[in-house]
Design a protein that fits this description.
It is built from six helices and six strands. By secondary structure, it is an alpha/beta fold. It has one domain. A six-stranded mixed beta sheet has the order 1-6-5-4-2-3, with helices on both faces. The longest helix is centred in the C-terminal third of the chain and has 23 residues. The radius of gyration is 17 Å and the shape is globular. The N and C termini lie far apart (40 Å).
Length: 176
């Protein structure tokens, strides 16, 4: 958690003098391959700003349910089953899709960082008896946006990242 907060602070300091929208992906062809064979996913949303007592998505008029329901619909249309936390823990690989946001007010603008990551169990190459959870797919969007239609812009960003995830997923799991 501290690493993500430090990353957010660093990124916001870096871009604080600009009005920008940027996107950064840790994904590549190999990362997309880690999505092969996933049949079900557990979805979690985390609002870091709200956890810190700052303006979160709720104050922008966006609900956690709204974000999760949109993602569930997209995943179902791609043929992915949505599972509960308990089912995830029993599923091979324990695939968990984390959607997270961190938003802060800066004068007449909002700074934001939106992450979507897929975590799943992996084995260490040097010790295949050691299994741990790791991020195998990740995309982040960050920037500063004006107050007008902020909630629409944040939802659009989440949609765009969701589409990138689904494109990678379908590239290695083509529909039959």
């Amino acid at each position: 958690m501290k690493k993500k907060s430090l990353l957010f602070i660093f990124l916001m300091m870096l871009i604080s003098s600009f009005k920008v929208n940027n996107s950064y992906a840790v994904t590549n062809e190999d990362n997309a391959k880690t999505l092969k064979g996933i049949k079900s996913i557990y979805i979690v949303f985390e609002d870091f700003a709200q956890k810190k007592g700052e303006i979160g998505i709720k104050e922008l008029g966006i609900t956690e349910e709204q974000i999760i329901e949109k993602m569930e619909l997209k995943l179902r249309l791609a043929g992915i089953k949505i599972i509960s936390r308990e089912e995830c823990l029993k599923t091979k690989g324990s695939p968990l899709l984390l959607i997270s946001s961190d938003i802060y007010l800066r004068g007449d603008s909002f700074g934001y960082v939106i992450f979507i990551t897929l975590n799943q169990n992996v084995l260490l190459e040097r010790n295949t008896k050691l299994q741990t959870s790791a991020i195998t797919w990740n995309h982040m969007s960050y920037g500063i946006i004006g107050k007008n239609n902020t909630s629409d812009k944040i939802l659009k960003l989440i949609d765009e990242i969701s589409d990138l995830f689904l494109n990678d997923y379908l590239s290695v799991n083509p529909k039959k």
